[in-house]
Specification:
heterodimer, A: 236 residues, alpha+beta, 5-stranded mixed beta sheet, two-stranded antiparallel ribbon, 11 strands, 17% helix, B: 458 residues, 6-stranded mixed beta sheet, 3-stranded antiparallel beta sheet, 17 helices
């Protein structure tokens, strides 16, 4: 049967710019003994689209160049402000280092060649397997002037879940940052009043994190219980 | 923060007194000072606050209040009838839709999202399905008939949503006839929804890859007739309010928010267009083939409640135009992608024993093709897999930019779904619109934002 040591995933050669997200093994929740199907030995690497290299194509290069020049004006090299740029499915994502997020957002808003007037808010994503950068805050910006949309992603670790607030630059992020704090526990430093927004004020935990304990449903039939959704057998 | 005169109560005539034995306002001591619970009385009985102290009256309006447009709690700090500070309390309708979706297949997600902004269910479904289709890379494979039906249903939905906005907005400001007519006309559209999707609300009609089923026989004629009837009736409804001096007295110059304020606060939809900026995602970033339709983006330059009301009225006319064009564009064809690994295998039909899978499909899977049965079973129970990655799709809902951010980790279920609901973002403008005005004007401001709390709290 399957040994319990984690296996190295088989990533095809030539796809080096992929980013390993997770490795899932088995099928339909079958692990260890009891599996006679053989599917328990399946190893399934999950990889997110990795970094792209310039040229990115279309107007992406214009935006990237404009950002680079504007950041350089402030004495901030593009390479130290951003981790990487990902182009996938016709969308461009800038992974920005959290300490430079506010400067980055200010450039997006103020630079005439960029003019991202509108921030569509923050959304959190929790990647427990992404060690050291488990919490991602994802921002979407819209430039009405140039009719462009970009994504900015900022990461923080579970141990130090701090990301600077951009409410001073984009006031619309006020409630969005509160929501992301409420559901993911990301602390937005500098937010004027970072309180829970959807859950009750005294709620313990942050419900949309992947490690948030889910409840099972006790069934009144011979003491049976239904396990929480994340512990049920499921296709993976 | 601590004062001697903190008063909590409901909207309406309230009074407080520093006298300890006021029969209408029994007081008790707390660490914050003396608290009075007000149960009745008259303003005249209010005694002046002691010298050097500011009287602070905080009124909780809602969450159960007929004029707050849903379970919205407005926390108003008042100076007489003037609102000095306005804050919103939300979350009363939070149902964890985004989290729940992580434990259901991609197709089942539609059933959840349709329940968010319950006045615009088809927009929620469209945003989600367009995002999933973008992740799957099948955006260009959606059959034209499916896209046309989507556009037609969304525009009908825009009319019904705007009708409710006028109806409830009118009711909240005292125009009860507008409410009666608005809901009457909305019923016509809900009848169409029931005919096409089987349900009046929470339709779950738009699915990843297309729509759940084709239009039933007679639907096109019914929609054409309804559009004609609506044209006539919309005039009646709007004639009640357009240029009505009482209505204008309550709305003109109220809830002012200019372009700068809208940009800073991320406001979209009719509120943004009331500042004169013709920003409409249907024009600027067309989806579902909106570039093929002839319609105008309605704007006003008044930045007030009346302007937003006029925009909704005119947008309904534009939507009816689009519905008629969509009807003309409808060509026979499939309504689901050809890829059998994504397309839902069966079609619903109504038989003698009620609604269920169509007889031909049952015949095929039960007596003709074992593979078809296996395929059906796998697709319905397990669902399709989506390659890892993320996508953001925004559409123009009746309330503004409805964005859907979807992350896939390569499984049969979403890794994360987040909705940027326009009601949620636009509600932030309540303070900017209402502070410094009268309590009664807050109602008008909230009504002009037209928040739907199901979408705000999700």
């Amino acid at each position: 049967m399957t040994d319990m040591t984690p296996r190295l995933p088989v990533v095809p050669t030539g796809t080096l710019n992929l980013e390993l997200l997770d490795v899932r093994d088995g099928a339909f929740g079958v692990r260890g003994s009891g599996d006679t199907s053989g599917f328990g030995g399946l190893v399934d690497p999950r990889v997110m689209p990795g970094a792209s290299q310039a040229p990115f194509g279309g107007w992406f290069d214009e935006v990237a160049e404009e950002i680079e020049l504007s950041l350089a004006d402030q004495g901030l090299p593009f390479a130290s402000a951003t981790e990487k740029v990902v182009v996938d499915r016709g969308e461009i994502t800038f992974f920005v280092r959290r300490e430079h997020l506010v400067a980055f957002a200010r450039v997006l808003r103020d630079e005439p060649g960029l003019r991202f007037e509108m921030c569509s808010g923050v959304s959190g994503v929790h990647y427990p397997s992404d060690a050291g950068r488990e919490l991602h805050a994802v921002y979407h910006f819209l430039s009405i002037t140039h009719n462009r949309r970009i994504r900015v992603e900022v990461t923080a670790s579970d141990a130090d879940p701090h990301i600077p607030s951009i409410v001073a630059v984009y006031p619309t992020c006020d409630w969005h940052e509160r929501e992301t704090w409420d559901f993911f526990g990301i602390v937005f430093d500098g937010h004027p009043a970072l309180t829970r927004i959807a859950m009750p004020d005294d709620w313990p935990g942050h419900p949309q994190r992947k490690d948030y304990p889910l409840g099972g449903i006790p069934v009144e039939y011979k003491g049976a219980t239904i396990p929480p959704p994340d512990q049920r057998r499921s296709y993976n | 923060m601590s004062t001697d005169h903190v008063t909590y109560g409901s909207a309406g005539p309230t009074s407080t007194s520093s006298a300890t034995d006021d029969p209408f306002a029994p007081g008790y001591e707390t660490t914050e000072g003396r608290i009075f619970t007000v149960s009745g009385g008259d303003w005249d009985t209010i005694t002046a606050a002691p010298d050097g102290e500011k009287e602070r009256i905080v009124v909780n309006m809602g969450p159960q209040h007929p004029s707050t447009h849903g379970v919205l709690r407005l926390i108003l700090e008042l100076d007489g009838e003037t609102v000095t500070e306005a804050r919103c309390g939300i979350g009363y309708l939070h149902t964890g839709i985004e989290k729940n979706m992580e434990f259901r297949s991609w197709v089942q997600g539609v059933t959840f999202v349709t329940r968010m902004d319950y006045l615009a269910p088809l927009f929620n479904e469209a945003a989600y399905c367009l995002a999933v289709e973008k992740l799957l890379g099948i955006t260009d494979d959606i059959p034209e008939r499916a896209s046309t039906i989507r556009v037609m249903m969304m525009e009908l939905n825009r009319v019904s949503s705007h009708l409710v906005a006028l109806a409830t907005g009118g009711m909240e400001l005292g125009a009860l006839s507008a409410m009666i007519y608005g809901f009457r006309d909305r019923e016509l559209i809900l009848d169409i929804f029931e005919m096409v999707t089987g349900l009046r609300m929470n339709n779950a009609y738009i699915r990843p890859g297309g729509v759940a089923q084709d239009l039933p026989d007679g639907a096109e004629e019914k929609i054409r007739d309804t559009v004609k009837l609506l044209r006539k009736r919309l005039k009646d409804t709007t004639n009640l309010l357009v240029d009505n001096s009482i209505w204008m007295g309550r709305t003109v110059g109220i809830g002012y928010l200019d372009l700068t304020g809208c940009m800073a606060l991320g406001i979209t939809g009719p509120v943004l267009r009331s500042t004169g900026l013709p920003h409409d995602l249907r024009k600027s970033q067309p989806y579902c083939g909106y570039e093929n339709y002839d319609f105008e983006v309605v704007t006003e330059t008044t930045c007030d409640v009346y302007g937003r009301f006029l925009i909704r009225v005119k947008e309904m006319e534009q939507s009816l135009r689009i519905v008629e064009q969509a009807l003309d564009r409808l060509k026979p064809g499939p309504v689901m992608v050809a890829d059998k690994k994504i397309a839902w295998p069966s079609k619903l039909s109504v038989g003698s024993d009620g609604q269920g899978n169509s007889a031909e499909h049952i015949k095929e899977i039960m007596s003709e093709s074992m593979e078809a049965l296996i395929h059906h079973f796998k697709l319905v129970t397990e669902g399709f897999k989506v390659e890892p990655g993320q996508a953001y799709v925004a559409i123009e809902s009746p309330r503004g930019e409805l964005g859907c951010h979807v992350v896939s980790s390569g499984g049969t279920r979403p890794y994360r779904v987040h909705f940027r609901d326009p009601s949620f973002t636009n509600l932030q403008a309540v303070a900017a619109m209402g502070e410094g005005g009268q309590v009664a004007d807050i109602i008008g401001a909230v009504a002009s934002i037209d928040p739907v709390m199901g979408g705000v709290d999700r």
